[in-house]
Amino acid sequence: MGILFVVSLFLALYLAVFFDFFGKPQLKGQIEEFSAPFLSPIDKKLSEKTILFGDLHVHTTYSLDAFIGNLPILEGEGTHPVADACNYARFCANLDFFSINDHAEFLTRREWTDTIKSLRDCSRISNESDESSIVPFLGWEWTQTSLDTERHYGHKNVILKSLQNNIPERPIGAPDHKFFRSIVDAPAYALLGAMLYDYKNISYYLNYRQRQLLIKNLEYCDNSTHVKDLPLDCLERAERPSDLYRKLDEWGGRLFSYPSWICLGKYFSAHGNMEKSIKYRRAQS
C-alpha cells in the first residue's frame, strides 16, 4: 500500500505539472508611493549644466533567461517584475531615467501590456511623490546571434520616446534563439525533478510550466502583413536589422536603437564589427 501511495502521489504531481493545474502568471508588482529622496553630489547653484544618470538596458523576469536565472534552485531571488525595476531606480540607484529592455522573444501580450502599465504608473507616482521625478522609457531587446559571420548582427535595444503615443502592440523579436527555445521546450519531467528537489518553492516551477504552455500556444505573425493589421497576440519576428527597422517605421513614432553588445563572444562574432551592426539603420534613415 505504501508503494502504491507514493506512486499515486508522484503521478498526480506529474499530471499537475504536465497539464498546469496550479500555475499562475507573474504579477505586475507594487510601485512604492512614498517619496524617493534626491541625492546629488552636484550643486545646481554652482553648475551651469545638469548631468543626468540613467540605465538604458534593464531586464525584469519577463525575460526568459532572467526568469530561469532567478529560480530558487539556481540560487535566485524569485521573480522581479517591472515595478521592482522602478523601485530600485528610485530608491537604490537614484537614477534620473531608465528603460525596460526585456528580450522580445516569447514576451507575451499580457507581459507587454503589464510593462506599459507599470511604467506609466512609475512615471505618475514619481511625478506626484519624488523630490526629483524619474523618467521611465519603454523598449525591448532584439536578441539575435549567429555562428555565420554574414548573418550575425548581435543584440539591439529599441527604446521608445513616448509612453502614450504610437506604441507597438507587441515587441519585435529575432528568429527563435536556441537558448530561449530550450527554455520553452524543457520537458515536464525536468520541472518535476526541480520541484521534488526544491519542494519549498514549488510554486515557482508550477508558474514556469504555466508560462511554457502559454508560449507554446502562441502563433507567429505573418511577416508579409503590415504591423498594424496583425493579430494582437501573435509573436512578431524580424530576421535582419533592416526588417526590424522597416517594421518600426510602419509603427511610426519617435525612437532610437543601439547595439547592446561591444564584447567578444556569442554576442559579437570574432569577425564582426560595429560598422556592420549600424549600417542597416543608416540605410533606413
Account of the 3D structure:
The chain is of the alpha/beta class. The protein has one domain. 38% of the residues lie in helices and 11% in strands. The chain is built from 9 helices and 7 strands; from the N terminus they run αβααβαβββαααβαβα. The protein has a 5-stranded mixed sheet with strand order 1-2-3-4-7. Helix 4 links the parallel strand 2 and strand 3. Helix 1 crosses helix 6 and helix 3 runs parallel beside helix 4. The longest helix is centred in the middle third of the chain and has 21 residues. The protein is globular. The termini are far apart. The model has no long low-confidence stretch (mean pLDDT 84).
Short description:
The chain is α/β, with parallel strands linked by helices and 285 residues long.
Which features characterize this protein?
5-stranded mixed β-sheet, 38% helix, globular
